[in-house]
Fold this sequence. Notes:
Elements: H1 2-34, H2 45-62, H3 64-81, H4 84-90, H5 95-136, E1 140-144, E2 147-152, E3 155-162, E4 168-176, E5 182-194, E6 197-209, E7 212-223, H6 229-235, H7 244-256, H8 262-283, H9 285-293, H10 299-326, H11 331-351
Antiparallel strand pairs: 1-2, 2-3, 3-4, 4-5, 5-6, 6-7
Amino acid sequence: MIIDRYIARSIISTTLGVLFVFAALFLFIDFVRQLEHIGTKDFGLMEAIIFVLLSLPKKLYDLAPSIILLGGLISMGAMATNSELVVMRSSGITVSRIIRSVIQTGLVLAILVGLMGEFVAPYATSMARNLRAAAMDEHVLVGGAHGLWARDDNRYFNVKTVMPDMKLRDVSIYQLDENRKLKRSSHARSASFQNGHWLLRNVRHSEISETGVKTYQNKREEWSSLIKLDLLEVLRLEPEEMSALSLMQYSEYLEENELDAAVYQLAFWMKLFTPLACLVMLLIAIPMVFTTSSRSGGIGQRVVIGLLFGILFFIFNRAINHLGVVYNVMPVISASIPLVFVTIITVIMIRRIR
Length: 354
């Protein structure tokens, strides 16, 4: 319907404008922070720019509910100022019909935010960390889509994932001879540092010689050296930087080993609820705008209130989440409390619209 397309186009275009403003602000602040590191080994101006760009998706994802709230407030506030909402209602379009159009647009935005948090942000954050480590450490060769590459004399290592507890996943080791020819390749499903040495699990070796290739496997192997721990400290991903799938798999791993998985389970549920929070924050713009539409000169005031509401929601959400971990509240409950609270407020405010 025409009204659906018009409202969607208005909200999405304005939200993109707000997104651009936040992106420009984050880029400027982060670039200023990186200026002191420019010139450290191979970390130059271009590396700083790429690092800042790759770090941006995670920051925008964290503030996505607030950005969408502002986009909704500004776009619908403009429609109220231009009397478009009044014309719509005078033409027989009910408030519930307008809300339905906003929900449809919100679902599209929520899906995009979910995809960003699951695929774009974790991948970009990992690449940013690898890039910075590669530029600042001489033992690191390449960081990017194929994980971390590191070198130790004639051995080359490739690590696909560095988990928060320094556990490595998908580790490949390539041993060269004196003539720089490959003489052995090894692959371990996982590796962890324990009691001063590296413990590799499910290891497969391929010995290369003039007579052919010999392959053998070991369930466990102990290595005295592999990769520097201080390098892994820089590269490891925090729970909020991981994808929902990685969080779920890692939580299962911790539970299987009778370890505390509450922090990672909380991060998992926060990943699932963030798109829903975006939808609810867009809906709360409706009663704010309809209240403003009956008062002259109230749009700017409502935008400021919306900005403050978005900031308070972000702080309230993080505070409840961390308190839930401290007091051993079920992760799904502590992750959902802020969303349920804001949803109740939104429903009450919408029901008062006349």
